[in-house]
Amino acid sequence: MEAAAPTGPGRRAPAGRGRVAVLALGALLALLVLMAVHISQGTATVGPHTLWRAVISRWSDGGTSDQADAVLVASRLPRLAAGLIVGCTLGAAGAVLQSVSRNVLASPDTLAVDAGAYLAVVAVAAFGITLPPFLAGGTALIGGLLAAGIVLGLARAGAGPTRLVLAGSALTLGLGGLSQTLLLLRAQQTTGLYAWGNGSLAQIGMQTVDRLAPVAVLALTGLIVLGRRLDILALGDDGAAVVGVSPRRTRAIAVVLAVALSAVSVTVAGPIGFVGLCAPAIVRLAGARLPALLRHRLFVPASAVAGVLVVLGADVLLRALFGAQAGASVPTGIVTSFFGAVVLVSLAYRSRDTGAAAPAAAFVRLRSRRAFVVTLVTVTTALCAAVVAATLLGDAPLLLGDVANWLTGRSGRFVSFVLDTRMPRVAAALLAGAALATAGTVVQAVSRNPLAEPGILGVVGGAGVGAVITLTIVPLASFWYVGGSALAGAAAATLLVFGLGARGGLEQNRLVLIGIGVSAGAAALVSLLIVLTDQYNGTKALTWLSGSTYGRTFPEVLPVLGALLAAVPVLAAKRRELDLIGLDADTPRLLGIRLGTTRLGLLAVAVVLTAAAVAAVGVIGFVGLVAPHAARALVGRRHGRVLPVAALLGSLLVVVADTVGRTVVAPAQIPVGVVTAVIGAPYFGWLLWRSKAMR
Predict the structure, then answer these.
(1) Residue 358 above 70 pLDDT?
(2) Can you give the pTM of this predicted structure?
């Protein structure tokens, strides 16, 4: 089914084909140049001319006599081949997933395909199972298919970009938490998988590429053959059914083939982020001038070529900026994730799909004062019980009498040592949970978006970047310097997200999409800093990025306490303004509230709370989402009641998560952020399922 040219196909079609041919020639020349530069980079001082002679020698007589030939065979050709197959598979997979979901923000990342495939591979390695490349690819395929099915089910095909990205991000965090748990608990069996988990093109020989390349070729060929059906599917399900194309069957085949391509990429090089988002976006920009490129039989291979350019370009840039030695240890996926985050922010900023999110009141009912008092007493009692359990439980269980002796200074050396290290952890979890929950409540009211929270909006990621930069430059920096840096990073991220999201109003879904992009970019920067400065200590990176109370002291939790003490009276005085701002944009103005100034002040409070919590316990997600929602469900939407209940629930969640992480696999420990991600991801998915009004 061909689309006719607007002014005579006889004149326009040859010109269009000529322009496509010129573009294809330009892309081919760019690819050849990148390949030449790529193969000349490395730690060994072997020039391009010498390597070229080695290539000719191998093709002519198969010899492997000199150093150049050895370098070529052992390192550079496998890395180049990995870049070619990864870029090709991810670019094509992203193009097809976007077409099937009718969503330009779909990709193996946003559909959690990479996260599912990565978890499957890590799970196999964690239990000491060694699989050949073909079976490893099959395992990744199963994990990717399950993840894609869950995300598409939650978002529902054809929905707006916010639902898809939120569902994929939530599942990615949950699956990532499980992967990080396995990496930490089975560190010996999963050595090297942290760097690989960020996407690394480093290869030992050509075995994996050789065995999986035929799978990629078959899947790519299948998608090209399916191109005409995908073109027809773009007309709508009813139109496709009229001409004999089954929408459900076509989508199913396309998703399976796209996930197979993603599984090949993950098996070869780990999850390299955002290539599947960037490559189709590049082709669509060209398609604005050459509409023929948007037909799937050209769109899919063009996206594959664009994916190769993105991956090889990122790898060349990585080694050009940081040197050949750093290029060998820094995962390429960190660079692609950073630039992909920029593309995501750009697409979100330009997006016209900005329907308002479901109001917070849609999930709550009015509650009586008695219900509020009962809830407050119940939650407080539960929190006290959780604190007692956290104090007594751990790798060294204690009794209440031991705690009483410690409080009066009569405990023995062992009990004193245990409680001196355990009680600051309990205090850190208690205060950080309250701070994050309070900040989440404020952010949701200010943005009028019930799915917003400091982690999703990039505030937590910005605080993490600030803290890690300080720790990188000054490894022995005091906790106060780290806390100040976290505050600066959180403020910068907030200004960026809310500044870009202010276009069209902060209540728009664009705000969430931009926040997710900023969070992804912040995570890439943190990973880059850690790998560049301490690339052999993956556990340190995982612990920081996952959030942990390990090794905390009482002075280190004082900033969180101070932030809470400063924020509580401010928010108590502004509780009515929070109620009104959460309704709409007009009501506060009619009542004389200076909307811009009030929003800015409330956001400043949320930023300070978030930065203090991140400086104390690292990056913890979902607390600022789960606690406010649960509080509104229990006591209604009046912030005079929501704020204290949300703070108590946030403390309860983090204290319980920290206790579980310290005890379930003692003496090993699971970071508190991993536990909250595993708990929060299903809850977040349930909220998306409930919010049918959101598009």
Answers:
(1) no
(2) 0.74
